[in-house]
Design a protein that fits this description.
The chain has 345 residues and is α+β, with helices and mostly antiparallel strands. Helix content is 34%, strand content 25%. It has a seven-stranded mixed β-sheet, sandwiched between helices. Strands 13-12-11-10-14 form a five-stranded antiparallel β-sheet, with no helix packed on it. Strands 1-2 form a two-stranded antiparallel ribbon. β3, α5 and β4 form a beta-alpha-beta unit. α1 packs across α3.
């Protein structure tokens, strides 16, 4: 009896995989038609399945948001791919070797992609794993702040699992690594090059378009894993931002008046991140830091830095080789700031 139950379970599992593989293959065939009709009979023969099975796959794809027209005489026509971050859409045309090639966890909704990524990383999931969400209910920024993460294709909310073989002291540099990759990915989408604001903000003009949250788990003398989280406002209209951040937040849609595919933008970010991350692992952080400084243009700016229990005002002198802010106060003292929130004055 136990053997028969096991056999039935294995058969169901095989059938489930077969259904999934058939659906993916059908979608790829519809995409290759590039807006042309494909007969149902032709699909049935080509994919070695009944026409009823083809129809079931079409219905499943429609339920996921794919706009597929059907005609008794013409067959099937793919009109539109939904702006959803399905792993298949992320991988399609992706030019990376690590990020996006392994595990991609796609969640319709979660509290925080960083929280989910940390859970998975704690179980040993490999470097390159990506956690994506269509909506976050408790999206987090630095120092416990929330990140506006609505559903409906408005933004990119993702976390990357990293396992670099570097000392824990090197970990803060990864926020700057990520910022450079985000700016590179955004260049084709914005009227002017985005700017970075130390330590983790990406600005379009003087308004925040993206934020980075880096969290680390360490052993006594080594890194166990690092999770890099990114929230990027893509297709959020100005009126949708909460009133308290409407004057300080922006999106690609607000800046350009045009909606963009989040999957295409995500692929671009992953490709840029993988290249910059490789430079970091090769010990070439000074090159990355120079690129970060070029995007920041912060030297000489007067700022206020809010730290826990204390605020400090002064002029930015530089960002040092570890990625920390060097600030000279009014009395002439130079401060090396490891963490804080910067406000331009």
């Amino acid at each position: 009896m136990e053997g028969r139950r096991h056999a039935r379970g294995a058969a169901c599992d095989f059938w489930g995989r077969g259904m999934m593989e058939g659906k993916e293959a059908l979608l790829e065939r519809l995409k290759k038609a590039e807006g042309g009709w494909i007969s149902g009979e032709g699909l049935s023969v080509e994919m070695s399945m009944t026409r009823s099975a083809v129809w079931k796959h079409v219905c499943k794809l429609r339920a996921e948001g794919y706009e597929i027209e059907s005609s008794p005489r013409k067959g099937y026509l793919l009109h539109r791919v939904p702006d959803r971050l399905f792993p298949r859409e992320v991988r399609s045309g992706l030019g990376t070797t690590i990020f996006g090639k392994g595990e991609i966890v796609h969640l319709p909704e979660t509290d925080s992609t960083n929280s989910r990524a940390k859970e998975l990383a704690g179980r040993g999931i490999p470097e390159g794993t990506i956690v994506l969400a269509e909506k976050q209910t408790l999206g987090r920024g630095r120092r416990g702040r929330s990140w506006f993460s609505p559903a409906g294709g408005g933004g990119l909310y993702l976390s990357l699992v990293l396992r670099p073989e570097v000392s824990p002291a090197e970990a803060p540099k990864l926020t700057l690594v990520t910022a450079v990759a985000v700016c590179d990915a955004l260049v084709p989408y914005l009227p002017s090059r985005p700017a970075v604001k130390w330590p983790n903000d990406i600005l379009a003009g003087d308004r925040k378009i993206a934020g980075i949250l880096t969290e680390i788990s360490t052993e006594p003398d080594a890194i166990d894993f690092i999770v890099v989280g990114l929230g990027l406002n893509v297709n959020i209209p100005a009126r949708q931002f909460p009133k308290e951040i409407r004057g300080s937040a922006t999106s690609i849609l607000v800046e350009t008046g045009t909606k963009h595919s989040r999957a295409v933008l995500l692929r671009s970010f992953l490709e840029h991140f993988e290249r910059v991350y490789a430079l970091f692992l090769e010990g070439r952080f000074p090159l990355i830091l120079d690129r970060w400084k070029a995007s920041a243009g912060a030297t000489g700016r007067h700022v206020r830095v809010d730290r826990i229990g204390r605020a400090l005002s002064g002029e930015i002198q530089d960002v040092d080789e570890d990625g920390f802010l060097l600030l000279r106060d009014k009395a002439g003292y130079l401060h090396r700031i490891v963490s804080g929130d910067v406000t331009y004055l």
